[in-house]
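Q: How would the structure tokens look for this protein?
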Amino acid sequence: MGSRVFRAIALPLVVVFRLLIASHECPEQRRVVKFLKGLPREVKGLSFVTFFVSVGFGVQAPVLPIFADQLGAGTTAVGAMIAAFAIVRIVSAWPLGRLTSRMGERATLVIGMALLAVTSVFMGFAQNTWQLIVFRGLGGLGSAAFSIAALSLLLRKSPPDSRGRSIGLFMGALNMGLVAGPAIGGAMVTLPPEIVFYIYGGVVALTGFLAMAVMDKDEGHHQAATTGGIGTLSIMAAMRSSVFRAAIVMNFSLGWIVYGMRSSVLPLMLLNDLHEPKIWVGAGLALCALLQVAVLPASGRLTDVLGRKRPLIAGALALAGGLALLTALPNLTTYLLCMSFLGVGAALGTTASSAAIGDVTRGQGGTVVAIYQMGSDLGMVIGPLAAGALAEKSYPLALSLSAAVAVWGMVMAIVMPRTKSAVSAPPQPIDPNIG
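A: Here is the predicted structure in token form.
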């Protein structure tokens, strides 16, 4: 039984790993290799790892409340368990960014994945609600360490003329995992909940070991950080750049709208205001997620060819336009159109804003990347709370406020300078004093 489960987990891991890392084209890989051509091995390895980490988040989602209920947790305790993960991610971002700058991305990545694996296993051993909350919170610490280190390493290893494509691959892997995870988790709800946590811990550990084979030792990172280079870019210096400010506001709006109210306020509007069947909740979320995954490769290419500014503007416009459409004409058709706009806007905004951060830092992340990611986490917490409070009085008011947040991101993108004109142009580092 144990060996059969191990083979079932290990085989797809090895297949995907070989597909991402393989350097020689074969017929069944031709289309994939064409997209991956020229991307560094580290980018492919990080995308591989991120896919399985994000699958695990989705797998755990339907199991967590079931396990908490078995331990006698009430609704407040379940809410605390979910909040603990997000709160720890936010409060730990800054120190973890500094840790990444000092120790290097590779070491921080290992620490993050180790925490994710160990805390997942410990959650399976939890005997009461408080243990579950504590281990879930520590999992948030591991998640923050992993995401900050992964994005920092991705930006450092991605050449400026293919940074958008690299981020498109990375975010595509992330979102594919988030789409596949809940479906796999739903199929595993018949298993004892603790088994799911053990499996996820094992998968994270295994993918971590495999990914280490394609990652360097961060010598270049330490050299930049110790010679007074751009690796020492301070938060205040970054904040003087209008490019950095636009990227943070865009990430905040993505957290607010796409990762927050999309799965909270909008489904409630569909059920309580539009009075549509529950099946459309899942259909709308799936449509948004699938469109986001489908558009990411094209978004990456556009970000490399056109620069970061125009995709940022287009992404914010898609977010605001989708919400405005649903506000003006609330019905099932416009709800699905809104979800489609959100998926496209998320793909454009995520790719362009992340690439812009790489331009500002010249590929050296650490604390600056941590602050950027805090924008999304804060939006994910504030958005559902603020929009949810307004939705109790008026759904159009809640949607209008959220659309205004997207417009804020669009205005910030309009006033920022162009960071890159085309792939044929030589890479131009961004002066932090711009804007």
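The two ends are 61 Å apart (CA to CA).

The first helix runs from residue 2 to 21.

Upvote if useful.
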